[in-house]
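Side project, low priority. Logging it here so it doesn't get lost.
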Amino acid sequence: MIKYSNVYFLGIGGIGMSAIARYYAFKGLKVSGYDRTPSDLTSELENEGIAVHYDDDPSLIPQDVEDTLVVYTPAIPEDLAEYQYVNSHGYRVVKRSRMLGEITQGQTCLAVAGTHGKTTTSSMVAHILTESGEGCSAFLGGISKNYNTNMLVSRNPVVVAEADEFDRSFLQLHPAIAAITAMDADHLDIYGDLEHYQQAFRDFAAQVSGILIYKYGLPLSDTETDAKLFTYALEDSRAHFYAENMRLDEYGHYTYDLHYPGGVLCDIRVGTLGWVNVENSIAASAICLCHGVDGQKLRHAIGTFQGAKRRLDEHVNTPRLTYIDDYAHHPNELEAAISSIRGMFPHRKITAVFQPHLYTRTRDFAPEFAKALSMVDKLILLDIYPAREEPIPGVTSEMIYKDVTAPEKLLLKKDELMAFLEKERLDVLVTFGAGNIDRFVEPIREMLLKRI
């Protein structure tokens, strides 16, 4: 158990950081922290009684060094005055991933890793365990729409964790059951190349003690782990867990029959949109069935799962006007999301707004981004959101734009977007990106609701 009275967070507004902050506040510790800018998340933390400030000011750090634990995210700059202060004044300073690893020790950890799909899948696992009555604590990389939070707490010693590969964070976890959803190249600024990136997933697999579930076809084998192996797939019967008899309703929701080693679970209706969420639900079902969840309770929970915010998140959904927002910021995520939306609405015009995230990712995957975005009918491409990065000479959205073959395309500045959309005739609109494009979601939703 933690032996401090104060926990102080550097970068408290991050999705993973805020979950841990909420956990310790629930445990009765005094929680406070710094973030660069206010956001919806920091506002929620403040409403929950957590003190947050936005000035880089070491005098605002709790001064009781022996009784204060400092948790930081690698997203903060090393020249941050508060970060330098805690490191030079004797505080115990712990990276977020290490903290999550310490929290899960001594409990049954169910983890979801993968280049994409992990937020929705882990949120679904947490919902299934909660809805089934077993309960769990959960640290999620997105806001669960069922609970309007990224953190659940339970007395049951089961923890659901989103296992993030960024900065090799997931190597702090030692799950009893884990799933790996994808191993597509990403974070090459950290890993260098695909081989080192995929090796990190193999290292993660080696730390799974009980059961490892992975998407059929991924480059994993029993030589990498002592865990028992199962595979899952959308409709490939060579996998241990797969869907059959998929049916689509007019609003984009699927019903299917789940084949698994124990039999068939019929008529599972997925509460979230698109075939990609059928696939996520199969991975979540595999984890929960291996954990011992009753099949009928699982089927009910998948139907009541509302998704994670910004993951194929439906804001308007009528036969004539649909608006979906999605966090996709990797070419394969975009391809899966656009393919899902095209499958849901095959005869409607899809207009996509995409904000690229990071200069390095744009540089490394520009042709792949262009290929994925060419799947829409009309593309509106915004400037790159830099996040933690400095500009790279020659790296702009034009690198993607020039190779896009969609029937219609245009480059827009962020501050031009709302005025442009107000004049557009829209059928299916989707906003994509991991930057600050989320600030447009509510204004777009309100604008479109007036058209219905």
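Brief comment: The chain has a mean pLDDT of 95.
Revisit when time allows.
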